[in-house]
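Task: complex structure prediction.
Instruction: return structure tokens for all chains below.
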Amino acid sequence: MAIELNFEIKESDFSLAGKASSKIKKMLKQLNVDAKIIKRIVVAIYEAEVNVVAHSFGGNLMAKIDEKKIEVTVTDRGPGIENIEKAMEAGYSTASKKVREMGFGAGMGLPNIEKNTDELKITSKPGGGTTLFFRNYL
Amino acid sequence: MHKNLFEVKITDIVELTKAKIVAGNPADIFLIEKAFSSDLMSDVLTLDEENILLITGLANVQLIRTAEMSDIHVVLLARNKKASSEMIQLAEENGLVLLETPFSIFKTSGILFSNGLKPVY
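Output:
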């Protein structure tokens, strides 16, 4: 039995960032998943939500949960990441002043997603969208 | 005053920092061992520890969300920052204890450190 959840993420709308991770956290709790495992995946999802709000033209997040794993796909409508290698470096950031005032934009988002996931794949091209896929075993 | 070097009660934190409880029931959580002071949620999200006290001057909804995702159950707003009604509502929904102190982060941290709260690192 697999559960699939879909969320739309709007550009620049910080008030809604955390909606997907919050819902997924509640669901994983109901499924009696270990708290440490829940924390890792919801931190990764939350960072991904903040990234879409902070850097993209909007996108969506899809989570698939079954007995053994959770898979998350986050897709946005651009503008794409110029240099993925650089974006993965801790401390590298292209965040705006507004994003930094919100308490983010320290260049920790993608490295923290990598740290908190078992598998991570990023595909992006400048001018196009970015897709993040990550998987954690429950 | 509770003087255990390893754990501090929420009610002690309230008393020591002259804090006001704006959300949650402080009796729900009895003891806290460690604290982290930061205005940067990006750094809070990198912590592996749970059940810590977060001291911050950042008063927005993302603070509450960050606490929720990080399994932080007590947040102390310093520098006389006030929680918005949206923050309080979200904190209540998530069972988060939200406190407000008129003290600066430095003073708040110093008082709590000298009363037994340990740093995360």
